[in-house]
Amino acid sequence: xxxxxxLKTSPGFQYKQPSLLAGRADVVSLSPWLAPIIWEGTxxxxxxxxxxxxxxxxIATTVFALGKYTRFLKDFLESAEEHYFVGFGVHYYLFTDxxxxxxxxxxxxxxRLTVRKVPSLDRWQDISMGRMEILxxxxxxxxxxxxxxxxxxxxDTKFYGRWGSETLGNxxxxxxxxxxxxxxxxxxxxxxxxxxxxxxxxEGDYYYTAAAFGGTLEEIHRLTKTxxxxxxxxxxxxxxxxxxxxxxxxKYFLYNKPTKLLSPEYLWRDINISAGQIKIIRFxxxxxxxxxxxxx
Length: 296
Ligand code: UD2
Description:
The chain is α/β, with parallel strands linked by helices and about 300 residues long. The protein has a domain at about 40-180 and about 205-215 and about 255-295: Spore Coat Polysaccharide Biosynthesis Protein SpsA, Chain A, CATH 3.90.550.10. It has helices spanning about 1-10, 45-55, 75-85, 125-145, 215-235, 245-255, 290-295; strands at about 35-40, 60-65, 90-95, 110-115, 150-155, 155-160, 170-175, 210-215, 260, 285. The strands form two sheets. An eight-stranded mixed beta sheet has the order 1-9-7-8-5-2-3-4. Strands 6-10 form a two-stranded antiparallel ribbon. Helix 3 (about 75-85) links the parallel strand 2 (about 60-65) and strand 3. Helix 4 runs antiparallel to helix 5 (about 215-235). Uridine-diphosphate-N-acetylgalactosamine (UD2) binds near residues 124, 127, 156 and 294.
């Protein structure tokens, strides 16, 4: 019987017994509403992959590259193909105003890329904010029955380490690398009550980046629809939130708590913060000259 049992076990299910007492003690890995916060050393990648491999899942992944931002595509896609959901189904949806500028990048097994043309825009803020409406429509019109999860990523980024099934969840937020160690009073939330993104001083959990967020199609449809509605309401009232759609995303996550949080390992930036807690940089913004690369 013993040998029959072990025959049935896949290698991913043979691992060191988990401990209830020993683990990382230098970081918090559970939010006050009991959502896990993912840090290196808090999960077993082989085990998590084995759990999700039992289901045939596809992760839709959206990225926008308009104007000069097409220059970031090669590194983004090549590094993603090295580190991002290797061994799982990935369908990239790339929105650009210049399909001819999309580089040839060899896709791994079960990974594919669809390019969609979108109109050029004059203001970088409109490009950044306009993503919410395009994503809302993409999910409603096409993705609901096509994919199981979705991640929406900035393009001026590069992968340096594994980003895999440990990041999957219903509603997933990524903690911004600049502010993870700051008191919430100093978070760059929108502080004007006239904006729909308003968060009063004294409220807030973490400061989330808009450079990466994800979850199930239903949850991200609700998130993008709500942010799009709030952005439109602000536009009608002639107000633009301080950090654009990122301010609205932070408002959304305050009242719709993420079910999983990714530590700043999952969005680092070329910054001079020495943070001993960061054991690995998995995904990072690349340094760019904003004035040179943006349309305005
Ligand atoms: C921050 C956010 C970003 C967004 C923005 C809004 C972080 C790490 N990132 O980044 O997610 O919320 O603030 O204020 O906090 N894009 C183009 N062409 C352009 C301009 C933008 O394709 O000409 C796209 C591209 O996918 C880019 C994204 O819009 O990654 C965000 O723009 P950004 O990277 O210039 O914004 P940034 O770095 O201020």
